[in-house]
Recover the amino acids of this structure.
């Protein structure tokens, strides 16, 4: 599935909230089919970086490119790009008044203009992908966190995105639910979906990511493959950060 | 004069008043939603001048007594616009615009109670702001608003009797006419009161039914 086609380019993104500079010039490129995990301490701009990619947050400086098209400065066209850049949130943000299947199909109908019957079929197919087809007629309030997150992944998948952004998708879930969500994500990664994942799940990052970016103080401090991260000395700070998990786990 | 005979004689006349009253209430509620809901959206999502204008409207219609508004419109606004409006139209307009002012604030609160994440998620799948408001925010806000909005029905129903002052031929006006014709006071007023209570009860029943019908797990108390 992997090839060398660059699908997403992020160039020199800066973002400040008031006096606080959250992103201090972040750049990277993503190849089609790659899974990139962003790790690092809380408050270092990882989530802000993801939101700058689909302009849910407007970056102060820098540009984002999807294929050959510029996402930043796209004006009204941004709604087109957002269809191509799926997003999965920490707190799911399912549409609370819609059943699982309506959550998945609504953008197909309202944004893409798909016929309701066609949209329903596609939505059901996406729910099947995440193992939620039996819950199609349930409302978000009736779902567990893990189930809700899987529906939200299906919602993102339904738009046939070029890339999906995961903003701490398992941070609100207990270990068991975390696992069911990570398994779905792993399946997607293996199927060739391009994914950017902000996560604190080191096991997932090491086993699924093609590249790991360690962020701190609004910059990408260290980056490389999971193997490099484990062996190379240039990953000192990153290893320290990960080591804190092991200490608590008693390793 | 025998009370029972009076009632049988005049009851058809009162029925006409019931229709006029319900007409006033119905058009006022309808106007209230048609204006109140967009006004609420404007107040939450609109630009500053829009928010300012809506603020003025709300301030004006909530700030004046119904009776004052009725006279202002009956003797001032409608004639000033060169319109020779029947009293009913003036009454319905005043109650409707006043209702819109109150209802806009009920809807505004409901819109603001919808969590920010709903808008973010809607934008993230490519909906425009307007599509997000229509397909995601309002369907939720309306469900939150309904119990508070239901309260507008008895409010407007009881207020509608003030239209007596400009001579709308509604329940209260007709009741007073019967009283002045027959010189029977209390029994007639009691009949009028009974009809108001019944209208109130029936209307609330209907609203509760609607509330139940559009109930969704996760909204309101007793959520699944």
């Amino acid at each position: 599935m992997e090839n060398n086609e660059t699908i997403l380019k992020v160039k020199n993104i800066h973002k400040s909230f008031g006096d606080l500079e959250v992103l201090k010039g972040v750049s990277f490129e993503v190849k089609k089919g790659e899974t990139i995990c962003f790790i690092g301490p809380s408050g270092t701009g990882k989530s802000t970086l993801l939101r700058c990619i689909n302009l849910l947050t407007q970056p102060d400086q820098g540009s984002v490119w999807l294929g050959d098209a510029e996402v930043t400065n796209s004006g009204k066209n941004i709604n087109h790009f957002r269809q191509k850049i799926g997003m999965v949130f920490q707190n799911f943000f399912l549409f609370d008044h819609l059943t699982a299947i309506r959550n998945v199909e609504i953008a197909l109908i309202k944004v893409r203009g798909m016929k309701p019957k066609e949209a329903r079929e596609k939505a059901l197919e996406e729910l099947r992908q995440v193992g939620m087809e039996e819950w199609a007629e349930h409302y978000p309030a009736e779902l567990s966190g893990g189930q809700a997150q899987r529906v939200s992944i299906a919602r993102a998948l339904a738009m046939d995105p070029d890339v999906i952004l995961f903003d701490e998708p398992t941070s609100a879930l207990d270990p068991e639910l975390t696992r069911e969500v990570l398994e779905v994500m792993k399946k997607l990664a293996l199927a060739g979906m391009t994914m950017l994942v902000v996560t604190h799940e080191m096991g997932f990052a090491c086993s699924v990511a093609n590249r790991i970016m360690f962020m701190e103080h609004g910059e990408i401090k260290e980056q490389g493959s999971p193997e490099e991260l484990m062996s190379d000395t240039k990953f000192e700070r990153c290893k320290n950060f990960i080591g804190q998990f092991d200490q608590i786990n008693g390793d | 004069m025998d009370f029972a005979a009076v009632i049988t004689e005049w009851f058809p006349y009162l029925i006409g008043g019931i229709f006029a009253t319900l007409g006033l209430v119905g058009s006022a509620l309808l106007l209230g939603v048609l204006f109140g809901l967009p006004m609420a959206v404007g107040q939450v999502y609109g630009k500053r001048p829009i928010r300012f204008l809506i603020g003025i409207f709300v301030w004006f219609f909530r700030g004046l007594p119904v009776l004052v508004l009725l006279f202002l419109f009956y003797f001032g606004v409608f004639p000033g616009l060169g319109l020779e409006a029947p009293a009913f139209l003036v009454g319905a307009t005043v109650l409707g615009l006043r209702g819109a002012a109150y209802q806009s604030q009920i809807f505004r609160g409901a819109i603001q109670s919808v969590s920010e994440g709903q808008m973010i998620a809607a934008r993230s799948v490519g909906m425009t702001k307007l599509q997000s408001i229509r397909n995601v925010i309002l369907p939720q806000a309306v469900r939150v608003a309904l119990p508070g909005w239901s309260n507008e029905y008895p409010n407007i129903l009881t207020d509608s009797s003030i239209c007596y002052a400009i001579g709308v031929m509604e329940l209260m006006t007709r009741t007073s006419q019967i009283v002045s014709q027959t010189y029977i006071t209390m029994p007639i007023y009691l009949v009028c009161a009974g009809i108001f209570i019944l209208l109130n009860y029936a209307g609330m029943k209907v609203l509760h039914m609607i509330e139940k019908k559009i109930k969704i797990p996760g909204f309101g108390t007793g959520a699944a």
Observations:
- Chain A touches chain B at residues 54, 56, 79-80, 82-83, 86-87, 89, 91, 93-97, 106-107, 110-111, 139-142, 152, 155-156, 159 (CB under 8 Å).
